[in-house]
């Protein structure tokens, strides 16, 4: 039997983008003392800045899909490719690649759409709750 888990008293969250700030906020709501650190020094200045902190509940299909292996081959060697692969003699890289390719099957993609949609809808609902909480507190949105 597994002993009951106790929540940590303090947590360090690395990264002050939308995911890091949301994680820190949720932990703080649960009474955890949180330290939020970011390489750039401010919230939303990294990936969330470039992406506008956008979360989309409409795009739930996993990136790994049947068309991706062919696109990756087409993109090989391109610095502007959205997926870059630099083949090395590294068994871990090849193991990861084989797992990724297995997830590119249509059936594997279909299996993940439902859980991804469920997570996206929960996330969207929680973000709406954040907005209400922040407005009531007189705080600005990230």
Describe the fold and architecture.
The chain has 142 residues and is mainly α. Helices cover 49% and strands 7% of the residues. The protein contains 5 helices and 2 strands; from the N terminus they run βαβαααα. The chain starts with 9 loop residues before the first strand and ends in a 5-residue tail after the last helix. The mean pLDDT is 85.
Record field, number of beta strands: 2
Look at the helices and sheets and give the structural class: mainly alpha
Strand content: 5-15%
* Secondary-structure element order, N to C: EHEHHHH
Helix content: 40-55%
Low-confidence stretches are none
The side-by-side strand order for the widest beta sheet comes to 1-2
Mean pLDDT: 85
Shape: extended
- Quaternary structure annotation: single chain
Number of contiguous helices: 5
Report the radius of gyration as a whole number of Å: 19 Å
The main pleated sheet reads as: 2 strands, parallel
Compute the number of structural domains: 2
Cα end-to-end separation: 42 Å
